[in-house]
Each structure stands twice: as structure tokens, then as C-alpha cells.
């Protein structure tokens, strides 16, 4: 096994977005069972160093593939289509308008300490994102339209950020 | 010399090759040592049959030390030189310590970590902890009849890097080979999970003498996976004692107390707390040095009232940990109670109410951590029997980050990342011609550097002068399986590098440890030279055994000429280890390490291929097909 192999190859999974989550979990554990530093605690220094590197890589690869957004970004990256989120923030006006409406809704509910409304927003946004992930899966695995997929990923990054802000607001209220 | 038959990892070792390894629970109030003996995990008792060792160290004017029950019973006589709950000071500055004004010690606010001025000189918390560990080490070696190969030392899951490093330093100072720093709730989960063959989602609620941890784990066929950890590394049973102490002072309208009287009343407070576990009221009586008499009755109702905020303080981190794990209370199958403080009825009630189920208390909450640590130590030392194998996936409790412009923190590795973990982040210069960059490493969840714990600062120098924004400085964080961080920085265009094991700003340098080791050896009137030689010989033996085990398992990975070079290096090291020249042993060890470097890489390769064995051709083809897409 090449240390520089991509994350899909590391777990023996096909390079697709709709991965077999159970297979990913199982292979991650099989790999860690072989390379984890706990297996090398009594070994010589050189083996301990290698074990640290491999176990670190296995964790990194697992994290990259486990959740849909990082997985989509990574898949696009290995296919040579970098999402370029850092320098490509241009979004269509209607998307930005919609974002502003969402944000206003969250800000109001937060200020009012309205736990119920925040839960409702969380639920609505989650549904919207699920639909968006379905479309992303079709773009990546069926149509192989990577430009459209990159655009969808950039939008989902906005939505994931919004979702974590809603969750933070809920946490704040719960902790009071 | 003929090769010894050494069992490969995963195979069972014959009884006479059993390696002596222990698990140590280095607690705030009490410490324990446990081991696996003839297949059974047992706590090793002292010569009077007592399993606990009170974590109390007394320093006498002649430099001698006493640890355990003796100094504990006499603590009110010499409070300044009797160090209790030293764990609260590990990796901590003076400002971090709660109720510091009511403690009887003479603190010196050294950078990063406090020190204590005693009659036997200035002592760091690391040295005090090392005394406790030395006592446990001696107990284990006497009970097991030999030198220890290594030890697993437990730490609160919520310990930050500074506290972990201090603990590891203490173990080294006590002459222990640290196989792993293991999180206390995880150790408890191992003991509990293996004992009950549990599967599913579990919470471990661990309230010790001075620390609180909550861990959420998924237990499934041989895998212990920590999903989230939370807690408060300055909250424990001690705080409940302190509340009682304050209540007593208020009720009895006591004048400011001498440190001896404070100690006495704290002891009475602890006794009352323990008494209330099985009674509805506890008498508190004491005669102070001023002649004043204290005679009060503490009822359960009052005790609950004065400690309810402490109980509530443990519930918040549980909510946060569940949220981090993306779970709801209903999904938790069982709640394991750990730590002596969980015996308090109000704690059991609050936890039961929160999780809507009876907490599990079938393992002794004082011993479960040490037992789990011993089981893990046995595994790590390579004593496991075939099929008797499990995998532990733990996390870091607090995010690690760097200071950026304006005193803000940029998180590099988020909390609850599975360890070992690494991540690199790129930064650039912000001034034209800038040739150096300060790197400030912090730990914590807050946005401002000033609200997080500073772990280390270092400078990357010698960056070639460029326009602002042109340099590319890659900072890499690596967290190892002990949860300890090292940081490296490299300017990408020029290759200028700097790195730091996150240690110097608060911990001890290796030289300092060596110095302390020498001091302690001088005190013990031991022969420092003989001791160092002995340690080198043990190290050499450990390396030889590791290499021989590797050859036994994977000898075919060595070409004939390589094999004979390795055998030669082993023979030279064996010969050196029989002699009395420490330097020669070290050189022979380096030589053997060098001869086996490639072999180690091939072995790792083989392990990884093994993880892929059993895949169907179909699966591999699909992978290959996918890569063409």
C-alpha cells in the first residue's frame, strides 16, 4: 500500500459520492486494528513512528469520507476539480437573498431566545440540505457534471455553516 | 546466542515470557496500581492489604519523604509540608488553582506551573506526583517479583496538553516506561465493557476527587470508540468538602483559621460527606487549636442545598458532549459511574434523572479505572492471547489552535478529533521583508487567545525577505496516541524549518528531568551510576525483545545478508548490555535501530496489506474502475 494513495483507495472503496458507509466503518477499523500505535507500544522507535504516521493518515482519510460535504470536496479534488471555495465566493443573487432571509430568521429567534423556532429552523434547513445532497449525488455519480457539482458544494458550505450557527444558538439557550 | 522464542503480537505468550506491566490510576485523593496476573486483573494491595494509596506526600527536613496513609493521618500537624491533591497543581499556574488562598502551601508562581516551597526545598507538582508513582512502582515490583516493562498511567479525559505532559514527566521521573497515557473514563469503559461484553452507546460519568469527566463511547465488537469527551478539570469531591467546610465556618462563626485547623476541618468535612452516603445526618465535631469547639449536625437536606450548584455543574458538560456526538439522551444505553465521589446519593439521583435510567455501579468506582488501565497495559506490553484483542479509538478533549492577527485563535485540530491526528495550515507574512514569524500554540474553545491556555511559543527565523503575503509558512500539528502535541513550522519556498515538542513554556526540559532524577537518586543514597546503567540495560533488553519478536513474526521480510547484519547488531548489543559501559550500550542500540529501519517499514507494509486481505477481486476492480472516472 502506497502511503500517498488517495483516501478511497486506502479503504478499498470506489471513487464515488454514494459510498457504502458500513464498508467504510468496517475498513477503517480493520486498518486501525493493524496500524494503531497501541499495537506498537512495545516495538522499537522506527516502527512506532511509522505506526503514528499510518494511524494519523487513517483517521484523516476516515474524517474526509465520513461526512457528505468533506467527501464531496475530497472527491472533486481527486478528480481534479478543486471547489476553490476560498477564492470563489461569487454566488447568484437569489441564493444570497435566500441566505439573508435565513440569517434574519435565525438572528430574530436567537435574540428572542425562541428555542422552538430555532428547532423548527434547524428541521427546515436540514430537509433543504438533504434534498441538495441528493442532487449533488446525482451530479457526481450519475451525470458526472463536476462543474455543477462544485457549485452545489459551495452552496452546501454556506448551508452547513448556517446549520452550525443554529445549533450553537440552541446550545446557548439550553446552557442558560 | 540462540534466539528466544518470543510471541508475536496477537499470539499468546508462554507464562514465563509474560511481561510485567501495570496500570496506574494517579488520582487526586487516592492512587492505585493494578496488573493482569494469571489471566486475572487485580489491584495490588500494600503490605497491610489496603488497595488504595492516599495521594499524600510529606517532606521532612532531612529530605526524606513519606507517601500514603501515614502522612494523611498526620496532615494537620505539618500542613505546609504535607502535599495533598497535588493533581490539582499539575501543569497549572497559580491563577488556575481554585481556593488557592485557603491552601496551606507556600506557592512559587514559576512560569507555566506552580512550585511549592517545602522544608526539603522547592518541589514541582511533577516531583510530588513522582513520589506517589515511585511508591506504587515499588509496590508492584515487590508483588510481581521483577522489573516492570512499562505502565499505563491514567489521566482525566479533560486534561489539557500541559496536564498530560506533566503527568508523563512525573512517570519518567519515577523511572517508569510509559506505554500510554490513557483517559480515565476510557479505562473504566474497557474494564466495564470487557467484563459485561457490552455493545452500544455508553456514557461514563467520572467524578473523582478533583476532576470531572464525561465520555460518550460506542462499544462494538472489540472496538471502544470515544465519540465525545467533556468535563471540568477543576471540579471534584474536594469541592463538596470545601462547601461543607465553608458551611461549618459560617455556622460556627469561626475566626480566620490556622492552616492546621483548616486541614482538620476539611478532614471532618470529608468524613461527614462520606457518612451521609448511608445516613441522613452527620455529626461534625472538632476542637481547634484556639480552644474553640465545633459541634454541628449536617443533614442531607442542607448538604444537598449547599452542593446543588456543583451537581448542576456536571450536567452542562454532559449536554455538550451529547451534542458534540450528535446524540440524544434516549440513545444512551447505559451510564457507568466512576470515581469515589459518585457514591454521593445526590449525584446518582441527578445522573439518573438526566439519563432517565439507573446508573451502573456494579464495578467498584474506586478501582474500575486502575483495572481498565491494567488490562490495557497488558495488551500494550504484548501479552495478549489470540482472540483477546480490542481496539481503542480515543479523542482530544479540547481544540488546538494558533494565535492569528488581533489576538484571535485559529483552530487547527478541533476537539473530539480521533487521535492520533495531524493537520497542517498555511500562513503568510504580513510585512514586506519579514524574516521571522512567531508561532503561538493554544488550547481551548474560546475565540480570544487570552481566554485559552497558552501551550508554547516559538519563532520561525531565517525566512528570506519577500513582499508581504509571498512567504508560505506551513504549520503542522501532530497529536500522538497519548494526546500530546508537537508542532513544526516550515517556510515552503525556502525550506526553513523550526519545530517544538509542546513543552518548554510550561513543562520540564529533558535536562531538568535528568537533573531531578539525579537529585532524587542522590537523596536516596543510591548509586546514580549503577541506576543509569541498569536503566540502559533494561532499555537494551526491551529493544532486543522487540526486534526478536519482529523477526519471529516476519523473518521472511529480511534478506539473508540483512538478517545476518541484524543478528550481528543484536549480538553486539547483548554483549554491550552485559558490560558496564553505558555509552557503549547506547551506541549499540543506535546501531541496531539503524539496521532494522527498513525492516520496520516492510513490516508496517505487511500489516497494512493484511488489513486489505479478504477483499474480493470485485471490490478492488470497482475501486480501480472508479479511479478512471
Which terms summarize this structure?
heterodimer, A: 176 residues, mainly alpha, 7 helices, globular, B: 629 residues, alpha+beta, six-stranded mixed sheet, five-stranded mixed sheet, 37% helix, disordered N terminus, disordered C terminus
How far apart are the termini of chain B? 57 Å
Radius of gyration of chain B: 26 Å
Q: Please, how many helices of chain B?
A: 15
Q: Count of helical segments of chain A?
A: 7
Roughly what fraction of the amino acids of chain A lie in strands? Answer: under 5%
Put the structure in a nutshell:
The complex is a heterodimer of chains A (176) and B (629). Chain A is built from seven helices and no strands.
Question: How are the secondary structure elements laid out?
Answer:
The complex is a heterodimer of chains A (176) and B (629).
Chain A: H1 7-10, H2 21-35, H3 45-66, H4 68-78, H5 93-111, H6 115-143, H7 146-175
Chain B: E1 21-26, E2 30-37, E3 40-43, E4 53-54, E5 56-59, E6 65-67, H1 69-73, E7 82-84, E8 106-108, E9 115-118, E10 121-123, H2 125-144, E11 150-155, H3 161-173, E12 178-183, H4 184-196, E13 200-207, E14 212-220, E15 223-232, H5 237-251, H6 259-275, E16 281-287, E17 293-299, H7 300-325, E18 334-338, H8 345-355, H9 368-380, E19 391-393, E20 400-404, E21 408-413, E22 421-427, E23 437-443, E24 453-460, E25 473-479, E26 485-491, E27 497-501, H10 510-523, H11 528-554, H12 560-578, H13 582-595, H14 597-612, H15 617-628
Parallel strand pairs in B: 1-11, 11-12, 13-18, 15-19
Antiparallel strand pairs in B: 1-2, 2-3, 2-4, 5-6, 5-7, 8-9, 9-10, 13-14, 14-15, 16-17, 20-21, 20-23, 22-25, 23-24, 25-26, 26-27
Helix pairs in contact in B: 2-3, 4-9, 5-6, 5-7, 7-8, 11-12, 11-13, 12-13
